[in-house]
Amino acid sequence: MDDIATAAGMSRAAAYQYVRNKNDAYRRLAQRLFAESLDRARAAADDPNASTRQRLVAVLDAKLELTLGLHRDSPHAAELLDSSTKLVGDLVEAYTRELTDLVAHTLDDLAGPRAHAVADVLIALTRGLEADLTDPDLPRQRLRDGVALVVAGLTRPGGPS
Questions:
Q1: Which domain holds residue 88?
Q2: What's the structural domain count of the chain?
Q3: Is residue 18 part of a domain?
Q4: Count of beta carbons in the 10 Å neighbourhood of residue 57
Q5: CA nearest neighbour of 29 among 62, 76, 71
Q6: Closest of 91, 85, 93, 84 to residue 30, by C-alpha
Q7: Which long-range contacts (CB under 8 A, 24 or more apart) does 122-125 make?
Q8: In contact, 136 and 68? CB cutoff 8 Å
Q9: Per-residue pLDDT reduced to its tens digit, 82-122
Q10: Cα three-residue angle 114-107-65, rounded to 5 degrees
Q11: Which of 62, 97, 105, 111 could cysteine-pair with 40, CB 3.0–4.6 Å?
Q12: pTM of this structure
């Protein structure tokens, strides 16, 4: 709570006027971060000037950027992103479900009935890229390459159905 109060430029007692305790603060922060990431992802999915590949990269980049930003800015990143924690696990799972649904919707035209399965693969790819964040440009490039490969496989003439 001292860190929260200091970051907010207020006393610890004043911070308690806004949050009940540290857990409440964590949940509120996680909710805000996930909502902002989903807003960014929705805007990318709805971009009428972008190709499906570009929209997919931008949607998944919203998740990647959330992780990169948290790891860069907070020593508590792992706690805020871990679906197995009691504190925010339900929020992480809800965020991942909504993001997966958004990716699947973006893939509808290309993947048809396989859209959700392909979305699961792309979410798993993005999670895997978050394992090594020592060079923030590398996961971004790998995300673009991975999406390009998946889209090419879905649009290849005579490709598997």
A1: 26-155
A2: 1
A3: no
A4: 22
A5: 76
A6: 91
A7: 122/56, 122/60, 122/146, 122/147, 122/150, 123/60, 123/63, 123/96, 123/99, 125/60, 125/150
A8: yes
A9: 767 788 889 999 999 999 999 999 999 999 999 999 999 99
A10: 120
A11: 62
A12: 0.84
